[in-house]
Amino acid sequence: MRRIGRRRLAAGAAVLAVGVVAGTGFTLQSALASQDRIAQTAALTEATGLRHDQLGAYASIAEAKTRAQAEDTLTLASDTLAQVETKVDAGALAASVASLGDYKTLPIDTVVELTQQTRAETAKAMEAAEAHDRAEAERAAAQARANTPDGARATARDLAASNYGWGDDQFQCLDQLWTKESGWNYLAVNSSSGATGIPQALPGDKMATAGSDWATNAATQVAWGLGYIASAYGTPCSAWGHSQSVNWY
Hints:
InterPro entries: Lysozyme-like_dom_sf (IPR023346), TAT_signal (IPR006311). By secondary structure, the chain is an all-alpha fold.
């Protein structure tokens, strides 16, 4: 009888325990989850040597550093955008800057993602701007070479042949004519008449019909001068003959 009574007593205690658990809404699953969190915290504490309250402080410090990095990234990206937006398509960088602008209030995971994205777009924009600057420098160097007397002669020879079918015989006349007029100097100005440039156009802005850069581009002056010779004299040799006769063309 004693054994049976003890068994009944144990069973009753077990039922009572289940009833208490059920009555408080505390399930076995949540209990296990709590134990797991406790174990994880203990493991982290053991690994780092930090207490639970210290771990919270560390997380706050890490978050503050992350937002500070976002601020630095935003500053660099904004400065870069101001420098490159007139050179390249900086739409992607502008969008990243706008998205990261709320870094103070965005969730920390979003801040990390947007910071990485903005850094990548900043690097792309800087590379594109550098490529643009190199291309501009090469173009300027090519323009400088073309503006030399030899460069202007080469341009004139090519245009005379391709646009008018004039060969070396006509080019020789052209060379003599413009050597006399300006020495093939695109900056030449006649102090008496005001005639300007390689073909000595009078006034110089006549050459704007060949291009708005007529004052700085020898090729534009050459193109206008060849057109003038073709319409007024037919060929460079006819223009040269007229120049020899009356000292102008």
